[in-house]
Structure formats: structure tokens, C-alpha cells
Amino acid sequence: MNPLITLTGITRSYPSGEGRLQVLHGIDLSIAQGEFVAIIGASGSGKSTLMNILGCLDRPSEGSYLLDGREVSELESGDLAALRREFFGFVFQRYHLLSEMTALGNVEVPAVYRGVPAAARREKAAALLGRLGMGERLDHQPGKLSGGQQQRVSIARALVNDARVILADEPTGALDSRSGEEVLTILEELNAEGHTVIIVTHDPKVAARANRVIEIADGRIVSDQAKAEATRAPIPHSVASTGAPGLGRLSEALRMALLAMRAHKLRSFLTMLGIIIGIASVVSVVALGEGSRQQVLKNISGLGTNTLQIFPGQSFGDMRSGRVTTLVLEDGTQLARQTYVASVSPTVSSSQTLRYGATEASAQISGVGDRYFDVAGITLTDGRAFDATDVAGMSQDVVIDENTHQALFPDEDPLGKIFMAGKVPLRVIGVAAAQSRGPGGSTSLTVYAPYSTVQTRYLGSTSVSGLTLRVADDVDMSLAQQAVTDFLTQRHGSKDFFIINNDEIRSTITSTTQTMTILIAAIAVISLLVGGIGVMNIMLVSVTERIGEIGLRMAVGARRSDIRAQFLIEAVLVCLIGGVAGVLTALGFGQLFALVGSSFQPIYSSTSIAAAMLSSCSIGLVFGYLPAVNASRLDPVAALSA
Ligand code: ADP
Ligand code: MG
């Protein structure tokens, strides 16, 4: 019968200082199907090194290894992983169970990497555990099991893929003698069923249970004694069942990522925090920018398009002093005759003391045209505004604002009431809604009267505090502005006025808010990058921390791509959950903003939310890649012994 395993001239050396430390010196060995072999030797003699080479966890430095007639010493890592999956079952001294998973989950792991469908592998794992006396403890996590029970779980795991060869490195080393005895009995039974069992031990009593004892010292075989020749039927090796391997392994990677995150809740949350803050600020900033832009546009649209506002003086500073009287009503009348002008509405104002019964209050009398309320975007809560006839007839019908209403007629219907403003009686025909200008709104009182009334009754002059000029429809705004400037400069002999072009304000504000949004969003993107680097950092730490887990997964047959996928998925998941939390935070922030009662609301666009999710995924992919590759490049032996 052809031997199952044939080693010829196997050596293994490790780089050490200048030269190399040779651990195995030309091992020649052959093991037949169905043998129960114990490899015995002092600590440091090279038993584990030999075992790792036998189990295709490690490659020899020199020599040939024929496994079932196939040379495996030169195989690629992927092929070695396949052999570990299909051919070998490992039992370790320290069990190497995954602490986050149940006993059943641990037993299933090698079958997952082999692509066995979930139901089939669960059934098999449960049957094996039941057979090893663990049927009651399928859902226990390793931490809740005794050493002997954990070792049975690890034996079940070694069997789940119908391994032909069981490799056990000091399987009883960490167990009390009774549990150790039970484990040895199980191994004997497995051998009796046809499994080839190779056990490493330093204990001669354990070795005595085997049919053949190979002693090694300083990396050389010094004795090889067989008891009885055991010839057994080869165990039926089930065909590799590859149901939906890719999907199954992906969902396993996803499950592991979730388990790992659950096991380290605080750390996962802190890792996410960078992403949460980054995404929340990007989404909020974009929404606030859009909200403020639309609010500003709405405010300006109240002023109407095609509108120029002309004020006396050089700037608003001059105008407020109230002493600049260079702009007169006649300017408006003359401008209105120009072909490029559709209409002109003057504004004037005067400060007066209001009296109603015993109540007194000082107020600003604002003389405006009949279209002013539309143009300025002021809404009336009660009554009506004055019309063109009122303006022409210098009517004493006025609109008061809410502040004036409260000051003069608290808890009364003000419509039709007549009060004194200075020496002039005025009748209320309408109430204007309170205008919120900044926090708390304004506390000053304003009475809107026809400008003609204010000019004749109070000012006695024809100077105006401003002209609102509507440009004719087909005329270009900047040309019209230039024409108005030229016209007035000629009339006055100097440029003693200034013009505000609403369209200019609109475009200026739009581009300013856009610039601000881009600027703040850029800062937020930087914070996202910082968050991503945080994720990478934690993932690298996590790889180091879980090195034993990675080694175990490789030992039971995980491909490098499986390990890479697991860590990549974890990184993407952390970022994705962070992204969702970030978007929710941003939405919550919007609610808060509404409660505070700001003058505008953030506007969330689905595009920005989708972009946020997409970018958090990409951050996970980009910053998770390095840690994932690091994990997948680990050497299984080094990872296992770490
Ligand atoms: P045993 O299992 O018989 O106790 P090992 O096979 O674990 O012994 O180790 C044999 C020798 O090889 C020891 O001297 C150990 O220090 C050395 N050795 C094992 N692994 C490495 C490694 N990765 N790098 C360097 N030396 C190693
Ligand atoms: Mg050892």
C-alpha cells in the first residue's frame, strides 16, 4: 500500500541573526493511511515545526513532501489552504476557539470556508458535537466551557470537513488527567474509524497510546517504533460540497464583522465617531448652505426682479444720518419718464410720537408707495394696504406694524382706530405681520403711510430717503443702472447717490453662500479623511489583536481572500454604520435647528445623503484595505503561535 505521507530529506531553518537556525535536519518519514502516530521529544526538539509542515501550515526549507502521491512542498498558499480545508483537521494544545462564537459556530468554521451550505454544515456540526458528548452545549461560548469541553469542540471542528488526517499538537497539554484521558479515547476511536491520527506530545504515557512512536531530538528522528501493524479501511472521504461558496463565505465574513463589532462595542463606536462627525458635518453644512441660500433668495425675491434701489449719499452710512437730502421727488418723476424705466416708487421717513388716549410711543413713519408691501415682501395680518388712489390723494389711512399694535391698542382690534402721530391724525386700515430681523425681532414701531402724506404733513420738503425703480422688461439691468447713474449725475452735477441692484445682490449672495458651503464642506471632508485614518489605525490594531484568530482561520482552511474580505467588510461596515449614524445626526440637528426657531431651515438633498453613504463606504474600502491586506499576508504558523 502506498503511504499517505512521505517526507524525504525535509529541513526547516529560520533566519537568526547573521545566519540561519536549522530546526529540522533531513527528516525522512512515511506514514500510512490509518496509522496512529505519536511524535515525542523534548521541548524545542522541533515537534511542532514538523507537525506544521505535515499539516501544510508551513513549508519545508528543503526536501520533498508527497501527500497521497502529490508533491506539496512547492504549492501556492491557496492550494495549501485547500489541503488544510479538505485533508487535515487540527487540534491545538490551547484549543484556539473563537471566543465570540458558540460551540456550534466554532465547529462550523472550516465548513464555511469549504463552501458547505448553512443547513448542512449546522446539522453536521451539531451531530459531531452530540457524538462527543457536547449536545447540551451547542450554544455555549468557549468562555463558558471547561478545558476538556473546549478541546472536544476543537476536535469536532477538526472533523467537520471529514478530515483524513487529524493532527493534534499536545492536545492534552492543557488538560487535567481525566479530561486528557477522554480526549485520547476520542482520538483512539477516530483512529479506529479510519482517520489517520498524528499526535505530538512530550509525555511518554500519552505517546504509549499510539501504535507507532517516533522520537525526535534536535530536529532528527532518533527512534521509530511500531507496535502492531494496523491496517484499516480508508475512511470514505465525502466529495467537496460547494453549494454557494462565494456567498456563504461573504455572509460568514459579514457575520464575523458584526460579532467583532459587538464584542468591542465601545471601540467600534469610538472608531465610528470620526466618520459620524465627518458625515454629519458634511450633510449638515450642505443642507445649511442650501437652506440659507434659498432663504436669502426668497427674501430677495420679495424685492422683485428688475429693481434698482437709489439712495442719497455715498453709502448706507450717509443715508442713516438722515441729513443727506440730495435725492428729491422730482428725480423720481423725471426718471419715471425715461423709456427704460417702468415705474418709480419713492420712500421717505420721519420720526414721530404716537398718541392714543393716554398711551404714547415714538415710532418711525415710513412713507412708501402703494406697491411697497409687495416689493418688500411684507404681509398683512389684518385689514388692507393703501392703494394708488390713497397715495395720490395724500390719504391719512395707514398700516401699522405688530409692535405699534401692541403698544397703542393692546388686546383691541386696531382697524378703524384713529391715533395722533405728531400733530396729524392717522387712521389704521391694516396691520403688518411682525418682521423677524435677527434674534428677538425688532422692538421699534413702524407706521406705513403713503409717501405723499409723509412728505406734505411731516417733512414739508420733497427730499426722499430712497427711490425704488423698476426697470422696463426688455432692458438689460446693468445698462439701465448705467443710464440711471448717468441721468442722475447729470441732473445733480455730481454723483451724490448710490444704487443697489437686487439682481447683483442676489448673485453675490448666491455665489458667497456657495463659496462658503464649498469651503466648510472641504473642512468637513478633511475631518472625514481624519476619521478614515482613525478607522485604518483601529483596524490595524485589531488585526494585531486578532492575530490568533486569523491564524486559526488559516489553519482550518481560510483563503487569503477570505481573511481580506472579513477585515475589509468590517471596515466598510464600521464606516457604513457610522455614515448612517452621521446622516441621522445631521437630520436630528436639523430638527434641533427648527426648535431653536432660526430664520431658515436646513434643506437636505437626497443627493448629498447618497453621496455621504457612498463616501463612507469608499472610506471603509480605502482605509480598510491596508489592514485587510496585512491580515491576509500573515504567516499562519506565526499567527497561530502569537
Ligand atoms: P517543540 O514543539 O518540539 O517544542 P518547536 O518545533 O516549536 O519545538 O521549535 C523547535 C525550535 O525551533 C525551537 O528552538 C524554536 O525556538 C525554533 N523555532 C520555532 N519556530 C521558530 C520561528 N518562527 N523562528 C525562529 N525559530 C523558531
Ligand atoms: Mg511544540
From TrEMBL:
<dbReference type="InterPro" id="IPR050250">
    <property type="entry name" value="Macrolide_Exporter_MacB"/>
</dbReference>
<keyword id="KW-0813">Transport</keyword>
<feature type="transmembrane region" description="Helical">
    <location>
        <begin position="565"/>
        <end position="589"/>
    </location>
</feature>
<dbReference type="GO" id="GO:0005524">
    <property type="term" value="F:ATP binding"/>
</dbReference>
<dbReference type="GO" id="GO:0046677">
    <property type="term" value="P:response to antibiotic"/>
</dbReference>
<dbReference type="GO" id="GO:0005886">
    <property type="term" value="C:plasma membrane"/>
</dbReference>
<feature type="transmembrane region" description="Helical">
    <location>
        <begin position="269"/>
        <end position="289"/>
    </location>
</feature>
<keyword id="KW-0812">Transmembrane</keyword>
<keyword id="KW-0067">ATP-binding</keyword>
<dbReference type="Pfam" id="PF12704">
    <property type="entry name" value="MacB_PCD"/>
</dbReference>
<dbReference type="GO" id="GO:0016887">
    <property type="term" value="F:ATP hydrolysis activity"/>
</dbReference>
<dbReference type="Pfam" id="PF02687">
    <property type="entry name" value="FtsX"/>
</dbReference>
<keyword id="KW-0046">Antibiotic resistance</keyword>
<dbReference type="InterPro" id="IPR027417">
    <property type="entry name" value="P-loop_NTPase"/>
</dbReference>
<dbReference type="Pfam" id="PF00005">
    <property type="entry name" value="ABC_tran"/>
</dbReference>
<dbReference type="InterPro" id="IPR003593">
    <property type="entry name" value="AAA+_ATPase"/>
</dbReference>
<dbReference type="GO" id="GO:0098796">
    <property type="term" value="C:membrane protein complex"/>
</dbReference>
<feature type="domain" description="ABC transporter">
    <location>
        <begin position="5"/>
        <end position="243"/>
    </location>
</feature>
<keyword id="KW-0997">Cell inner membrane</keyword>
<keyword id="KW-0547">Nucleotide-binding</keyword>
<keyword id="KW-0472">Membrane</keyword>
<protein>
    <recommendedName>
        <fullName>Pyoverdine export ATP-binding/permease protein PvdT</fullName>
    </recommendedName>
</protein>
<dbReference type="InterPro" id="IPR003838">
    <property type="entry name" value="ABC3_permease_C"/>
</dbReference>
<keyword id="KW-1278">Translocase</keyword>
<dbReference type="InterPro" id="IPR003439">
    <property type="entry name" value="ABC_transporter-like_ATP-bd"/>
</dbReference>
<feature type="transmembrane region" description="Helical">
    <location>
        <begin position="518"/>
        <end position="544"/>
    </location>
</feature>
<dbReference type="InterPro" id="IPR025857">
    <property type="entry name" value="MacB_PCD"/>
</dbReference>
<comment type="similarity">
    <text>Belongs to the ABC transporter superfamily. Macrolide exporter (TC 3.A.1.122) family.</text>
</comment>
<dbReference type="GO" id="GO:0022857">
    <property type="term" value="F:transmembrane transporter activity"/>
</dbReference>
<dbReference type="InterPro" id="IPR017911">
    <property type="entry name" value="MacB-like_ATP-bd"/>
</dbReference>
<keyword id="KW-1003">Cell membrane</keyword>
<feature type="transmembrane region" description="Helical">
    <location>
        <begin position="609"/>
        <end position="626"/>
    </location>
</feature>
<dbReference type="InterPro" id="IPR017871">
    <property type="entry name" value="ABC_transporter-like_CS"/>
</dbReference>
<keyword id="KW-1133">Transmembrane helix</keyword>
